[in-house]
Structure formats: structure tokens, C-alpha cells
Write a structure and sequence with these properties.
Blueprint: H1 9-15, E1 16-27, H2 66-78, E2 82-83, E3 90-93, E4 103-106, E5 113-121, E6 127-139, E7 143-147, E8 159-163, E9 170-176, H3 186-204, E10 216-226, E11 236-241, H4 244-263, E12 271-276, E13 281-287, E14 297-298, H5 309-316, H6 323-334, H7 338-346, H8 350-358, H9 363-371, H10 373-380, H11 391-402, H12 408-419, H13 425-432, H14 440-453, H15 457-462, H16 469-479, H17 486-497
Helix pairs in contact: 1-4, 3-4, 8-9, 8-11, 9-10, 11-12, 14-16, 14-17, 16-17
Bound molecules: zinc ion.
């Protein structure tokens, strides 16, 4: 794949206005699928969660999953949407090799939720109001695995395998209206919007919301137009981007790619595009016109969805606090500065910090470990993934420090063993004997040994020159390979000087 020519980002923004639009698919975590009783479970043996309905055997009739409808209504209400009193499913006719029916059961002109909005904060602290056009229910397709090619894509593959376990899993697709006015922050806004959606569905408990498993995936539409122009430019739709970082990069890339083409008199082809994380680039998918004729028609096998006002109000009463309210509450509970808090949000570590504090750590200690050593380890790993440690283990590590059982240096060592799978921090400390030495006898012996080569230190301390103590403390720490309790060494030294 040849990398396209790109315009410098600042230059692109000087010449063009960016308009984005986002479609987010959320996989619901119902026990069963959207229209049948098969298990909705990730990671099972291929083609074990299937039945005549989800593999479309003749005569099989679907029925709507009540929990999926309720989850969809909750999502709609959380986005400030109206809920349709009467909504129908529709058939979207399309050949999907991994959806055996040859159509997808979706919603077309009667989505369950419509006309909402979501306030989204970008890293600069600015809040953008993103208008929501609709949220509709549909079913997921199965999964194809292409065998024999070098890239895992269909091109060059010898054959493909299909797993229908995911076929029929309930999805909610949330579609924004065109988003104007984000300017240079459009890529950050796209990522922050998806993060907010993820927070909402996770807070509602209606989705596992794990992007790496495809529970939340984003199609990002990008178009450019000359400043002041009324007509929207031709857009491209980058499909199924599945990490926040990739969304930001993909939008930025499309802005630069399209700007280069337009500035050189070219035209943008309306098409879907694929994002390649490794190359940091998008490539052309299939052409897509506004007039794609999916020959939608009302699904004759399903009755309309008609939630009563009582049901809608009962669901509204169960909504948890909004993400923006949760942030305000946590920021004030934790007492972080605005910058400290925003850094945590932007590092996508809010959940981890909240759980670590809930497990008993002080907020600043939780922040220090997640934003410091653990972030460093994550950055150094190939995938940039969050290290394999639980918030409870981080809280345990912080507690060991707070109780003086280990110091910072030992804690980093303990952490490395925890990440290597040797157990919890307390187990590692016990198994490897990594506790700080605060046994006075051992410390006094080490101090005396250090003093033997530095006889001036005691008289200096007696004269009140405390900086002299530093050399002895340093020597003791060195002699005991960092495991001495430095504060206790200092106390003992002062006691010895004052005898
Ligand atoms: Zn089934």
C-alpha cells in the first residue's frame, strides 16, 4: 500500500474547515442474542452458539430480546434522545458472507431513539456539544477469518472460515449529526466522543465496552470544505476503528490526505476506508454513494416495538450519574488539580483510579502509580496496553508503602514481579523477602560501619548541620541494597549523635 501524500496539518486547517460525523456500534452484553435464545458470549468454540434462527434455516422465526430493547432505551435516554413510542425493525438487504440470512435486521426510518445531544470535553478543556441524530437497534454479523494470506485480509487468502457465534448479537448504532467547529481539535473530539459513549454504556452496565474485543467500534466520517463554503465536501468513512488512539490518528490522517488532494485540484472519492494501525494510514475500501439501495423494508416477522411511557419513565429512573457529573464528583473527592485530573482522563485511566481508590488507596498514591510507573511500562510495551495488574493490587502496593513495609525503590521491584505473575504485592514481598529493614539492630550495625569511614558526621550533626546525615544515610542504603528504612536510619543517627 503506497502511503498517500499528506498536507501539513496546520496548513490544512488554514485552508479548510473540517466536518466530522461519527457512527459508534455498541455491542450489548445481554445473556442471549437479539432475536434468538443463543448465548451472547465472547470466546467460545466457533459455531457453538448457533440455532436455526441465527443461521437462518427455513421457517425459523425471530423474537425480539426484551433486555436488548430496554438497554437501547437506556442508551437513548442517556444521550438525551426522544424514545419512539412505536418503532419497527427493517430488513437491510445486503450480502454478508458472515450473516446467513442475506439481510441484516436493523432499524431504518423508525429508530428506537432520536434527536439527542452529548457534551464532550476535549483535552484542551473545551466542551463541544455533539448532536445525536439517532440510536437504532440491529444485529451483529459473524466473524470471518481469512487463511493463507500474509495480511489476514481477504486479498491473497486461500480460503476463509466463518464463525456464526457473533451473528445476531445485539448492537446499538449511535449516529451523530455532522459536527462543525471543532477545527484543529476534530481528531481529539472524535476520540473523546467515543470515550464518552464508552463511559455511558459501561456506567449503564449494558455493554462490556471493551474496545479491544470490538464491543465498541467507530466509523469516522471526515470531509473538508473551504472556509465559508455552504456545501459540505465529499466525505470518506473510515470503518471499524477500535481504539481511541486509532480514531484520533485516523481522523487526523484523513484531514491531511484530503487537504492534499483538494489543494492540488483533485476530488475526494466517496468511499469507505480501512485504518492500518501499523502504517498509520488509511486505504481505500469500497465506493459508497448516498443512494446505496439496501432495499430496506419493514421486517414482516417481527411485531413493532412499542415501549409504554411507564416503562420509559421506569428506565429513566434507573440511569446512573452522567459522565460529566461523575468527573466533577471525582475531581472534588480526590482533590486533584484541574491539570492532574485532566491528565488522568486523557490517559484513559479514570476507571482504574476510581477502583484503586475504592480498594483503599489514597487518591494521590493511586494517581502516582497509574500515571507514573505503570504508564511508563505501558508505553514501553508493544501494544501500549494497560499492564496486567488489578486496581486492588495497586491499592495493596500503595498500602505497603504507606505502612512503611516497602519503600519506593522496593515497590518498583515488587511491581515487576507482580506483572510477571508472581502473585499479589504482599505475596511477592513475603516470598522474596523484599520488606524494608527497620530492625534497629541491623540498621545500627550498618550506621556504625558507615560512620567508621566518616568520623566527622556525628560532630557535624551535633552542631546542627543536618545535611551531613545525608552521606551516612546514602552509605547505609547502598550497603543494604536499598532495603533500609531511610526515615528510621535518620532517626537513629540523630539519637546516636545526641547521646
Ligand atoms: Zn441462535
Amino acid at each position: 500500500m503506497a502511503k498517500a501524500e499528506l498536507m501539513n496539518y496546520e496548513q490544512a486547517l488554514e485552508q479548510f474547515e473540517v466536518v466530522i460525523g461519527l457512527e459508534v456500534h455498541v455491542e450489548l452484553n445481554t445473556n442471549t442474542k437479539m432475536f434468538c435464545g443463543c448465548k451472547n458470549e465472547f470466546g467460545n468454540e466457533p459455531n457453538t452458539n448457533v440455532c436455526p434462527i441465527c443461521i437462518a434455516l427455513p421457517g425459523a422465526l425471530p423474537a425480539v430480546n426484551k433486555t436488548a430493547v430496554e438497554s437501547s432505551i437506556k442508551i437513548g435516554l442517556s444521550l438525551g434522545c426522544e424514545i419512539a413510542p412505536n418503532g419497527r425493525f427493517a430488513r437491510k438487504n445486503y450480502f454478508y458472507p458472515d450473516l446467513a440470512k442475506n439481510f441484516q435486521t436493523s432499524q431504518y426510518d423508525e429508530p428506537i431513539a432520536f434527536e439527542g445531544s452529548l457534551d464532550v470535553e476535549v483535552p484542551s478543556g473545551k466542551v463541544h456539544t455533539v448532536l445525536i441524530e439517532r440510536a437504532h437497534m440491529e444485529e451483529d454479523a459473524g466473524k470471518l477469518t481469512h487463511i493463507g494470506g500474509s495480511t489476514g485480509r481477504i486479498q491473497g487468502a486461500e480460503y476463509s472460515l466463518v464463525d456464526y457465534n457473533r451473528a445476531g448479537v445485539p448492537l446499538v448504532e449511535i449516529v451523530t449529526k455532522p459536527v462543525y467547529g471543532a477545527g484543529a481539535e476534530a481528531p481529539e473530539l472524535a476520540a473523546a466522543y467515543v470515550r464518552s459513549i464508552r463511559e455511558i454504556v459501561k456506567g449503564l452496565g449494558v455493554s462490556d465496552a471493551r474496545m479491544e474485543r470490538g464491543n465498541v467500534r467507530c466509523d469516522a466520517n471526515v470531509s473538508l470544505r473551504k472556509h465559508g463554503a455552504e456545501k459540505l465536501g465529499t466525505r470518506t468513512e473510515t470503518k471499524n476503528v477500535n481504539s481511541l488512539r486509532s480514531i484520533e490518528r485516523a481522523v487526523r490522517y484523513e484531514i491531511q490526505r484530503q487537504a492534499h488532494i483538494l489543494a492540488n485540484g483533485g476530488t475526494i472519492i466517496q468511499e469507505t476506508r480501512h485504518w492500518h494501525e501499523d502504517k498509520g494510514a488509511t486505504s481505500a475500501g469500497r465506493p459508497k454513494s448516498d443512494a446505496d439501495d439496501y432495499r430496506y423494508f419493514p421486517e414482516p416477522d417481527l411485531v413493532p416495538v412499542q415501549p409504554s411511557l411507564e416503562l420509559i419513565e421506569a428506565l429513566r429512573a434507573t440511569l446512573p450519574e452522567k459522565p460529566a457529573d461523575r468527573r466533577k464528583r471525582l475531581a472534588s473527592e480526590w482533590g486533584f488539580s484541574e491539570l492532574e485530573f485532566r491528565d488522568v482522563v486523557n490517559a484513559d485511566l479514570l476507571d482504574q483510579l476510581e477502583e484503586t481508590v475504592a480498594a483503599g488507596a489514597k487518591p494521590q498514591a493511586a494517581r502516582k502509580w497509574w500515571m507514573g510507573e505503570l504508564a511508563r511500562i505501558a508505553n514501553e510495551s508493544e501494544e501500549g496496553a494497560v499492564p496486567n495488574i488489578t486496581p486492588a493490587q495497586v491499592a495493596e502496593l500503595a498500602k505497603l508503602i504507606e505502612d512503611g513495609k516497602i519503600n519506593d525503590r522496593l515497590a518498583r521491584e515488587v511491581l515487576a514481579y507482580v506483572l510477571a505473575g508472581e502473585g499479589s504485592p504482599a505475596e511477592v514481598v513475603a516470598a522474596r523477602g523484599l520488606e524494608v529493614v527497620s530492625d534497629d539492630g541491623a540498621l545500627i550495625a550498618a550506621i556504625e560501619a558507615a560512620l567508621a569511614s566518616q568520623p566527622d558526621v556525628i560532630p557535624a550533626i551535633r552542631e546542627g548541620r543536618m545535611q551531613a546525615a545525608g552521606q551516612v544515610i546514602g552509605a547505609v542504603m547502598k550497603a543494604m541494597a536499598g532495603s533500609a528504612d531511610a526515615a528510621r536510619v535518620r532517626e537513629l543517627l540523630i539519637e546516636m549523635a545526641n547521646k
